[in-house]
Structures are given as C-alpha cells and as structure tokens.
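so im writing up the methods section and need the Altered inheritance of mitochondria protein 41 record in one place, dumping it here so i stop losing it
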Amino acid sequence: MSMLSALRTSQHSCISRTSFSSILMQRASRCYSTTTEDAPPPFLQKIKADLKTAMRAKDTPRLSVLRAILSANLNASKTASPIQTDVQLVALIRRIQKSAQDAVEDAKTAGRDDLVNKEMEQVRIMDEYIAGSGVQTLGEAELKTLAQDAIEASKAAGTATKAIVGDVMKRLAGALEGKDVDRKALAAMIKELVGQ
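--- predicted struct ---
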C-alpha cells in the first residue's frame, strides 16, 4: 500500500520538479557563499607551508614545534575567541614557548640532559618563528618609557592611586594595538613604577 501511494505522489510531483530544483539550487548557492573576513592570518599560512617542508626534510624538532602550534590553533578555533590575527598567533606561540621553558627547568631538576637539549631546541625554533612573524615586539625599555609617560598623564588627570594601573593600561591600549606585548608583565611593571 505504501509503494502505491508513493508512486501516485511521484506522478503528481513531476510537473513541479524543475521549479523545485531551481529553487533548491538558489538556496544552496546562498548557503555556501563565503566571506573574506574568515581568512586565516598570513603567518598561519606560512606555518602550514613550513610544516610540509619540515615533513619532506624530516626535521623532527621543527616538525614537532609546528604541529604543536597548529594543534593549539585548532583548539583555540573551537573556543569563543579563535585566533584571527598574527598578533594572536604570536601570543599563542609565546604560551607554547613558556610551557617548553618550564619543561626545560623540570628536566634540569630531574637531571635529564637529553630532554633539556630537546626542549631548548624547540624554544630556539619558536624564537625564530616569533622573530619572523612580522609582528613588532616591544622591548622592556620601550615599554618602560611608554608606561612612565602614561603614568604621568594619569596622575596629571587626577586618577586615584588604586585606579592608576587600570587607567594606564587603558591609555596604553591604543599604543600597543597590533604589537606583541606580555600584558601581565606590563601590568606588573606598572605596579612597580607606581609603587603599589
């Protein structure tokens, strides 16, 4: 009985198949259109290309570093704040580098020189990528002068002593936009300069 009813409905729907398929194609083309704002950062594309080169050259330390970066990027893409700029990618590499430096310290205390050498090589490779990223990294001296100027401006504006650190960070936000800066270290430097 169900086969018979299916045949009857298919005979009646033959007339409107062409219009249905054209509507379906229009909707499908709209659903699959892409925008340019979702393009990955250029530095990420360089890392992916270097991964292929490292695979061909069988460069194991570089390969493990690049895989760690791409894995962390993939994990970040599944969160509410995915990596969208080169600055964010450099900050991600710095976090990976920090964990590698912690592993070096742990290996030194355990007396494992083989692991120390391996982790130090990975830290060196990450330094290469940070330097070659094209993102401007501010040194401690530059940050100190920027922070001192912002502290003076904040004090001149009459900001309360307890609120100076937050006010200075807000004042520096524009100057630090698009640059590689460790904001926690900057906040600690500002607290030290203010005397808190």
